[in-house]
Amino acid sequence: MTSNDNGTDTADDTGSRTGTTAPAQPPSPSAVLGAAAALAAATVAVGYASWRWAPTGPLEPLPGPPWPYLAAWGVFCLAAYLLWRWATAYTDPEGGAHAVGVVTVAGMRTSLAHRPDVLPLWLYGALVVAGCAVAAVWWRRRVRRDQGR
After folding, report:
1. What residues contact residue 31 under an 8 Å CB cut-off, 6+ apart?
2. CB 110: neighbour CB atoms within 10 A?
3. What's the pTM value of the predicted model, to 2 decimals?
4. What is the CA angle 97-35-76, rounded to 5?
5. CA distance 83 to 86
6. Is 55 or 44 the better-scoring residue by pLDDT?
7. Which of 5, 40, 58, 117 could make an SS bond with 78 (beta carbons 3.0 to 4.6 A apart)?
């Protein structure tokens, strides 16, 4: 707050009451990598649990080892979360990790039930990650451009 000539308080141009606002600092790379690895490990654990202890319903897992599918979805989750954090480093919207985790678990559960070939799963997953990378670059450039105004 600042005072004008007639003694009344007005908000300063930063919109802050204290007048000391620091620009948003992105988290350290090691913290982001640790959070991404933790989220990927959690989704792989949930995927394994859904394969191991959920043998009923329309998404009943087929017999056979789940590891190629769990590995693919773990890598996709790691890449998606890292892209999310990079794209939103200066805005930090809430709920991104939840969205990445839910989509990853849903895809993992579906692929364990239908067992597509692993090679097309990796190829289509890489295409989706590449599309997300383009969207992340676009988003970050737009946000940084708007903050510069």
Report:
1. none
2. 13
3. 0.71
4. 60
5. 5
6. 44
7. 40
